[in-house]
């Protein structure tokens, strides 16, 4: 997949502030490249995803490359027609103050980009049952 996102970022402040006078879609631009796969093996399905985020935004302070790389793996195992076990793990490597995070649903795991530790990690396991 390939996505280009452009927006005005009218409310961006602090480290995310944009160059003064830059408005409209030229204030923020992100390019996302992703490749994923789902491979079934009987009742088990292996899942893998790799994403590259390129930040081409016009920041007020020179930040350098605020890109990020996301890698995730997981699997699903069907116990029956209505019950499935699932699990996965992922990591995002942030650069120069970017703060992308990973999570599932409302359980977002924030990246701690302070002191050079700009990596976020997450692990999710669960059971899905349809009624």
Radius of gyration over C-alpha positions, nearest whole angstrom = 18 Å
Gap between N and C termini: 33 Å
- Give the strand order, joined by hyphens, for the main sheet: 1-2-3-4-5-8
Average predicted confidence as pLDDT: 80
Helix and strand sequence? EEEEEEEE
Instruction: Identify low-pLDDT runs.
Output: 108-116
Q: How large is the share of residues in beta strands?
A: over 45%
Which structural category do the helix and sheet elements fall into? Answer: mainly beta
Estimate the global geometry from the Cα principal axes: elongated
Helix coverage percent: under 10%
- How would you characterize the largest beta sheet? 6 strands, antiparallel
How many individual helices? Answer: 0
Total beta-strand segments:
8
As an assembly, this protein is single chain
Search tags:
131 residues; six-stranded antiparallel β-sheet; mainly beta; two-stranded antiparallel ribbon; 0% helix
Describe the secondary-structure layout.
Elements: E1 2-7, E2 28-41, E3 44-55, E4 68-78, E5 83-94, E6 102-104, E7 107-109, E8 119-129
Antiparallel strand pairs: 1-2, 2-3, 3-4, 4-5, 5-8, 6-7
Overall description:
The chain has 131 residues and is mainly β. It has a six-stranded antiparallel β-sheet, with no helix packed on it. It has strands at 2-7, 28-41, 44-55, 68-78, 83-94, 102-104, 107-109, 119-129. The chain is 0% helix and 55% strand. The model is unreliable at 108-116 (pLDDT under 50).
């Amino acid at each position: 997949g390939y996505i280009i996102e452009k927006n005005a970022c009218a409310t961006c402040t602090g480290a995310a502030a944009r160059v003064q006078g830059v408005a409209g879609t030229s204030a923020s631009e992100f390019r996302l490249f992703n490749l994923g796969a789902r491979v079934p093996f009987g009742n088990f399905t292996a899942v893998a995803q790799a994403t590259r985020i390129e930040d081409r935004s016009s920041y007020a302070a020179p930040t350098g490359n605020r890109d990020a790389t996301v890698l995730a793996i997981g699997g699903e195992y069907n116990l029956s027609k209505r019950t499935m076990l699932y699990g996965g793990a992922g990591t995002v490597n942030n650069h120069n103050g970017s703060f992308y995070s990973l999570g599932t649903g409302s359980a977002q795991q924030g990246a701690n980009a302070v002191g050079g530790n700009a990596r976020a990690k997450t692990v999710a396991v669960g059971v899905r049952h349809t009624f």
